[in-house]
């Protein structure tokens, strides 16, 4: 799906009044936003702004302290992570933790099974398809702990893709790569998007994010401070001040 097709149907995700506190510390405040079907929504913000916490609320790793989330029109708030994976939400983690002694293919089987794929042949076929899609076919039998950094990133994406998500959450997946490796990862993310997967992408590697994002939101101290096209957001003086330290 292309950016121009985004927004033609009901939003895939709607957050209303979303908040999260850890004890006395409020990390997310009263967030309202929508994610349109088919878009790549970039999420920016300084360290500690609450970006990963937002993903944890969407994936079900944490429960919100306030507000609601709807995915495909259905309230998500009480569903645990495995059920959200079954419903079509996949995510990567900032610190990938594959089963390092298991092969790439076995890691995908675990992810696909977690999300409730039951029939063995169907699961194998799906994992083989994802391995090819994520440029990991040649490494199907390599233990995850022996993969290069780029292939570990591909595996993290592949694990998230194995259950067949419609919404994919990417948490700082581009960090630490050379510029050539970064291009290969961006190409892969573009291909997954072109297959119809809606993406929300937290990223500090701005040129990678800007190459793919169709829209961006910016968080600062848990509040939404800007929203718009990537270029409009990057030109916003408030974003430049809080994110890049540029005073007007
Ligand atoms: N489980 C937790 N218990 C207590 N505080 C937490 C917990 N998880 C996150 N926080 C705090 O919430 C704030 C937001 O953290 P979060 O990881 O969401 O930020 P972030 O925007 O993703 O930052 P970064 O760009 O560094 O990854 C931080 O102050 C963090 O210390």
| Helix-strand string | EEEHEEHEHHHEHEHEEHH
The strand order across the widest sheet is 6-7-8-3-9-10
Relative helix content: 25-40%
- Output mean pLDDT: 92
Strand fraction band? Answer: 15-25%
- Could you tell me the radius of gyration in angstroms? 18 Å
**Which hetero compounds are present in the coordinates?**
adenosine-5'-triphosphate
Ends: how far apart? 38 Å
Number of strand segments:
10
Largest sheet: 6 strands, mixed
What structural class is derived from the secondary structure elements?
A: alpha/beta
Tally of contiguous helical segments:
9
Task: Note the overall shape.
Answer: globular
User: Low-confidence spans: pLDDT under 50, at least 5 residues?
Assistant: 1-7
Task: Give a description of the structure.
Residues 13-246 form the ABC transporter domain. The chain has 248 residues and is α/β, with parallel strands linked by helices. It has a domain at 99-152. It contains nine helices and ten strands. Residues 1-7 have low confidence and may be disordered. Adenosine-5'-triphosphate binds next to helix 1. Adenosine-5'-triphosphate (ATP) is lined by residues 22, 27, 45, 47-53.
Question: Which features characterize this protein?
Answer:
single chain, 248 residues, alpha/beta, six-stranded mixed beta sheet, four-stranded antiparallel beta sheet, 9 helices, 10 strands, globular, binds adenosine-5'-triphosphate
């Amino acid at each position: 799906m292309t950016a121009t097709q985004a927004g033609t149907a009901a939003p895939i995700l709607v957050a209303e009044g979303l908040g999260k506190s850890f004890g006395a510390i409020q990390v997310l405040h009263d967030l309202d936003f929508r994610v349109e079907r088919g878009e790549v929504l970039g999420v920016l913000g300084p360290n500690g702004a609450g970006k990963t916490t937002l993903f944890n609320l969407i994936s079900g790793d944490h429960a919100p302290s306030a507000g609601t989330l709807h995915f495909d029109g259905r309230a998500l708030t009480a569903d645990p992570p495995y059920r959200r994976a079954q419903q079509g939400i996949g995510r990567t983690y900032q610190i990938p933790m594959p089963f390092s002694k298991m092969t790439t293919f076995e890691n995908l089987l675990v992810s696909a099974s977690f999300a409730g794929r039951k029939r063995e042949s169907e699961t194998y076929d799906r994992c083989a398809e994802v391995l090819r899609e994520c440029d990991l076919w040649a490494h199907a039998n390599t233990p995850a702990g022996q993969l290069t950094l780029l292939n570990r990133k591909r595996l993290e994406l592949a694990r998230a893709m194995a259950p067949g998500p419609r919404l994919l959450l990417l948490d700082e997946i581009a960090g630490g790569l050379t510029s050539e490796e970064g291009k290969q990862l961006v190409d892969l993310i573009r291909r997954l998007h072109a297959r119809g997967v809606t993406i929300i992408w937290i990223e500090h590697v701005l040129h990678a994010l800007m190459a793919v994002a169709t829209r961006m939101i910016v968080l600062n101290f848990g509040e939404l401070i800007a929203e718009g096209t990537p270029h409009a957001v990057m030109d916003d003086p408030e974003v430049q001040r809080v994110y890049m330290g540029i005073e007007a």
